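This section describes the prediction task in plain terms. A model, or a person checking by hand, is given the sequence of a single protein chain and must write out its three-dimensional structure as a string of C-alpha cells. No templates, partner chains or ligands are provided. The sample shown here is typical of the held-out split.
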Amino acid sequence: MLEVGDGHTIYVEEVGNPAGLPVVVLHGGPGGGCSPAMRRFFDPDRFRTILFDQRGCGRSRPHACVEANTTWHLVSDIERIRTTLGLDRWIVFGGSWGATLGLVYAQAHPDRVAALVLRGVFLATDGELDWFYGGGAGRFWPDLWARFQEPIPYAERGDMIAAYHKRLFSGDRAEEVVHARAWAAWENALASIDSDGAHIESPADYALAFSKLENHYFINKAFLDAGQQIMANMPRIARVPGTIVQGRHDMICPPHSAWALHHAWPASELRMVPRAGHAVSEPGIASELVRTMDRLAGEGPALGF
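The expected answer:
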C-alpha cells in the first residue's frame, strides 16, 4: 500500500522479473480496479509488471471515494509509483479509461514513457459520452437501453449522466446500490461482441466504486479543459512509439476514436481486430496484445532499456 496524499492509499503490486522491462498497467473504468488476469499479457521472464488500483477502487482506500480524485491526481499517483520504484522510464499499457489515462500521463511526462500500448480507445470527448449515455449505443440495444433508463423519471432522461449522478450520490446507500448496479450492468452487457444482453448484477461494493467513480469523472468531463484535450496535445508524444489495439465492433468505445488517434500520432500503429468488441478478454484482442508485448520485449535496446 502506497500513501499518495489527500487521505488516499493505493494498492500497488509487482510481478515478473525484477530486471525485466518495466511496464505499468492502467485499468479501466474509472473504478474498475486491477485483477490477476491482467498479468497474462506480459512474459514474466522478460517484464517487470506494475499493477495498481486507482484511487477509490479495488483494494485502494478509502473505497468509492471521489474526494481528491481527478485525472490529475491519478497522473500524480503514477509518477509517485515510478519514482518510488526508482524507474527512469517504462512502458505504459492501458485499456478503455486506462488508454485515456495513459495518453494524458504520457502527454504530461513524455520523457518517462518508452512506449504506449492502448486498447479500446476512449478520448473522453462529449461525442463519446453522448454515444454511450445519450442513446447512440441504445439504438443497437434498445431493450437494454430501456432497462438503463427505467429507474430514471422521464423528465430527467435527457441527461442520463446527471440523472444517475443525483442518485449515485444521494446519501441513501440502498438507492445508491440500486442505481450503481444499473449503471454497471449497462456497460457490462455491451462489453463483448458475444453478449446476449444478459443482466449480471455486480456485488454492491464493486458496483458502488465502479459506478460512482465513472459517473464522477464523466460528469466532470474527465477533468480535461479545452487546453488539456488529448487530441490537441498529441504533438507532445508525436515521437513516442505506440500500438493501438481496437475491436472493430466495439460498442462502448467505437473505432472512430482509435482511427482519429492513429492519424494524429505519427509513431503509432493501429491493429483493428475484425471480430471483437470492447472486452480485453476477447480472443482476438488478447492475442494482439500478447503479440505486441512479445515484440516490445525484443526491442528493449531500441526503446532505451
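For orientation: The radius of gyration is 19 Å.
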